[in-house]
């Protein structure tokens, strides 16, 4: 029966006006019960596709539903996602009402003869309608004048992302459907069954994300030319962090632990400790460059992974600096204890003998003055600056000299071997504390 109706319509559509017929005539020819023309008589006689249904009256109710077939790519660098959807729109056109309780699926090319909504995708960068082997469109006509219009569309839609918590982030993206030219006085957009109007999105398996939840909204877009109806599908994507843990977090943590090996090597093993420090620094630098190469266009963001890599690099560099400080202090201590040799030593001995001879030949008063002067020069940190015989500027110099000696004493390493001893405990302890604060902040705040 459907084939007979469809063949008849195709024949009548392309016949001249004076030879057009009605479905009732064909029915009479076949001896079946007569039915009126299922909307095609209006289409061929007085139907104007440039005027919406209820033109000049109430707005057209357009109910929509969609299936999300796939989300092929989500680009952080371009701030967009690409999705393939099946968009279905339903509305009623009283000009296409016919008697009966049947529905007819028409050739998609006949959509050019009907009025259809001017729905478009907001913030779409690129979109196209699939046309293999023919245009992927569907037109179905019901007896009460309801039209089902379905399309298969692939679109790339902008999605503003906040990458400050990358890769522990959750992104919220939207798919917005809006009327281009008809405002809310002409058309009204509604979801066919609320949240149940969207299918397929919960079954998606994405490479880096998991769909947390989705929901539908009905809104309006206020423009300068009017208020336009808008439907919104909003969905949340949570990034799978396991890949980044294995790819970045674990290697960087192991490099930090490798830098601690130098604390168990003696200070005399200069090549071994230097090699470990320089190797770990270079490896960490390479890891940081590699992690940022995939997001080269979003370097303006300070991401969570950048913070962690910066922390690891600081600890590795600190281990290298720790050895430099310990080795320098050790060399200075040994140089101070080592006996002086050569002409300088002989000259010093001669000067000491001369000084002793002079002291013995001098008077007791002169001897006491020299001893007092020597004690002031050698142990300046114990100088009594409250002497009444000292002038004001001398007292100020004395106080400043004492303060400087105390400050230098605070930073003087008495035993360089203790530096490694304390580093074995402090470096792991501080690294663990920093990790606790890092993961607590980015996972729970």
TrEMBL record:
Catalytic activity: chloride(in) = chloride(out)
Listed GO MF terms: GABA-A receptor activity; GABA-gated chloride ion channel activity
Entry keyword set: Cell membrane, Chloride, Chloride channel, Disulfide bond, Glycoprotein, Ion channel, Ion transport, Membrane, Receptor, Signal, Synapse, Transmembrane, Transmembrane helix, Transport
Signal peptide: 1-19
Alphabetized Gene3D superfamilies for the sequence: Neurotransmitter-gated ion-channel ligand-binding domain (2.70.170.10), Neurotransmitter-gated ion-channel transmembrane domain (1.20.58.390)
A single cellular component GO annotation: chloride channel complex
Domain Neurotransmitter-gated ion-channel ligand-binding: 41-240
Subcellular location field: Apical cell membrane; Synaptic cell membrane
Membrane topology classification: Multi-pass membrane protein
Main location: membrane
Pfam families (UniProt xref): Neur_chan_LBD, Neur_chan_memb
SUPFAM superfamilies per UniProt: Neurotransmitter-gated ion-channel transmembrane pore, Nicotinic receptor ligand binding domain-like
Chain ranges of the Neurotransmitter-gated ion-channel transmembrane domain: 248-358
Transmembrane segments: 241-263, 275-295, 307-325, 425-444
Protein family membership: Belongs to the ligand-gated ion channel (TC 1.A.9) family. Gamma-aminobutyric acid receptor (TC 1.A.9.5) subfamily. GABRP sub-subfamily.
Subunit structure: Heteropentamer, formed by a combination of alpha (GABRA1-6), beta (GABRB1-3), gamma (GABRG1-3), delta (GABRD), epsilon (GABRE), rho (GABRR1-3), pi (GABRP) and theta (GABRQ) chains, each subunit exhibiting distinct physiological and pharmacological properties.
Record NCBIfam families: LIC (TIGR00860)
PANTHER family xrefs: NEUROTRANSMITTER GATED ION CHANNEL (PTHR18945)
Job of this protein: Pi subunit of the heteropentameric ligand-gated chloride channel gated by gamma-aminobutyric acid (GABA). GABA-gated chloride channels, also named GABA(A) receptors (GABAAR), consist of five subunits arranged around a central pore and contain GABA active binding site(s) located at the alpha and beta subunit interfaces. When activated by GABA, GABAARs selectively allow the flow of chloride anions across the cell membrane down their electrochemical gradient. Pi-containing GABAARs are mostly located in peripheral tissues.
The protein's name: Gamma-aminobutyric acid receptor subunit pi
Organism: Eudyptula minor (Little blue penguin)
């Amino acid at each position: 029966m459907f084939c007979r109706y469809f063949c008849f319509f195709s024949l009548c559509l392309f016949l001249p006006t004076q030879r057009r017929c009605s479905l009732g005539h064909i029915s009479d020819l076949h001896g079946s019960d007569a039915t009126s023309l299922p909307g095609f008589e209006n289409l061929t006689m007085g139907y104007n596709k440039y005027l919406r249904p209820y033109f000049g009256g109430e707005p057209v109710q357009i109910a929509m539903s969609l299936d999300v077939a796939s989300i092929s790519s989500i680009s952080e660098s371009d701030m967009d996602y690409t999705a393939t959807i099946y968009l279905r729109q339903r509305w009623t056109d009283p000009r296409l009402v016919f008697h009966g309780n049947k529905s007819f699926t028409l050739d998609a090319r006949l959509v050019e003869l009907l009025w259809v909504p001017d729905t478009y995708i907001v913030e779409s960068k690129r979109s196209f309608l699939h046309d293999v082997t023919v245009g992927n469109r569907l037109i179905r006509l019901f007896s009460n004048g309801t039209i089902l219009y379905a399309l298969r569309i692939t679109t790339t839609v902008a999605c503003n992302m906040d990458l400050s918590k990358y890769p522990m982030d959750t992104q919220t993206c939207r798919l917005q459907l809006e009327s281009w030219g008809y405002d809310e006085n002409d058309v009204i957009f509604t979801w066919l069954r609320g949240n149940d109007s969207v299918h397929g999105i919960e079954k998606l398996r994405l490479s880096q994300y998991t769909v947390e939840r989705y929901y539908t909204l009905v809104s309006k877009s206020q423009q300068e030319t009017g208020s336009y109806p808008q439907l919104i599908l909003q969905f949340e994507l949570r990034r799978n962090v396991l890949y980044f843990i294995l790819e970045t977090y674990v290697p960087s943590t192991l490099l930090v632990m490798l830098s601690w090996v130098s604390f168990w090597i003696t200070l005399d093993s200069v090549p071994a400790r230097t090699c470990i420090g320089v190797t770990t620094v270079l490896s960490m630098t390479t890891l940081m460059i590699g992690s940022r190469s995939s997001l080269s266009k979003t370097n303006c963001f300070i991401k969570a992974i950048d913070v962690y890599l910066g922390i690891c690099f600081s600890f590795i560099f600190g281990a290298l600096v720790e050895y430099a400080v310990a080795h320098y202090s050790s060399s200075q201590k040994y140089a101070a204890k080592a006996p002086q040799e050569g002409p300088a030593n002989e000259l010093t001995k001669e000067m000491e003998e001369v000084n002793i001879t002079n002291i013995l030949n001098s008077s007791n008063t002169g001897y006491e003055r020299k001893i007092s002067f020597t004690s002031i020069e050698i142990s300046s940190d114990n100088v009594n600056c409250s002497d009444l015989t000292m002038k004001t500027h001398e007292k100020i110099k004395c106080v400043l000299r004492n303060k400087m000696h105390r400050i230098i004493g605070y930073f003087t390493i008495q035993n360089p071997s203790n530096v490694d001893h304390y580093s074995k405990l402090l470096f792991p302890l501080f690294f663990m504390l920093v990790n606790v604060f890092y993961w607590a902040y980015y996972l729970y705040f």
